[in-house]
Amino acid sequence: MKPDEMDAVFAALASEPRRRILDILKKEPGCNVNRVTEFFGDMGRIAVMKHLAVLEGANLVISEKVGRERQLWFNPVPVHMIYDRWTTEFSAYWAGQLARMKYRLENAPVPIDRKKRGGSRG
Amino acid sequence: MKPDEMDAVFAALASEPRRRILDILKKEPGCNVNRVTEFFGDMGRIAVMKHLAVLEGANLVISEKVGRERQLWFNPVPVHMIYDRWTTEFSAYWAGQLARMKYRLENAPVPIDRKKRGGSRG
DNA sequence: TTCATATGTCACCAAAAGGTGACATATAAG
DNA sequence: CTTATATGTCACCTTTTGGTGACATATGAA
Lengths: 122, 122
Hints:
The structure is a homodimer.
Chain A: H1 3-13, H2 16-27, H3 33-38, H4 45-57, E1 61-66, E2 69-74, H5 77-101
Antiparallel strand pairs in A: 1-2
Chain B binds a DNA duplex through helix 4.
């Protein structure tokens, strides 16, 4: 997966309305643009079409024109590819860091022992 | 994980330079801003600081000021959370769709059989 | 043809992202 | 003190994003 493709997928997913569109397409595979628009009370058709264009650019949505309608489909492949990448790329890092940081991850960073900076209190 | 947090994480990851910064921090944990900047020939310090602000906003980077330096750390927790979410949310969908679409995923969408539209010529 | 529907395209606008240089502040070193 | 280093902050600029309405096109129906 090339960097540009990753950019497109992450950027597409970095939007609540777009993630919501994916949910809609998961629930109603093959529905058309106006049907998707119905789910949004605060957004018009053109905005929905732009979001769909972003999603199609990331290959997260596939469309096919049937008559005057455009049928829309969620494509899970890019998500799966990132998922695969993370399992391989990050698992080693997680293992190493988790062993080093134990369960302190969410709480505080682990300062490097460059200089002695007073004792830890508690 | 709230929608806003997901937005922040995905938006932060939707940038090649930012993903590169994370790689740098994985390789050199605790290094400072200027050190990170050295890796970029086409970007200045202020731009790097803005990227770091985005990454910190997504909690993908944690920093700690030590003396006049700012030590930077990669935090894998948000990635892990999305990873976890995907394993649960998408696995069922993948199983169902993969069974239905078989290996045709990358190639073509699967049109719903709403109207009979001539025979497939292949 | 005529009318309704579904989508595509265009110009336009406001806000956010992504970059810069100039300057201020804080710390280390002499 | 002075000087160098590391970072923070500010105004400014350009490009992209995200939204709109008006209008054009394509299809379905009568």
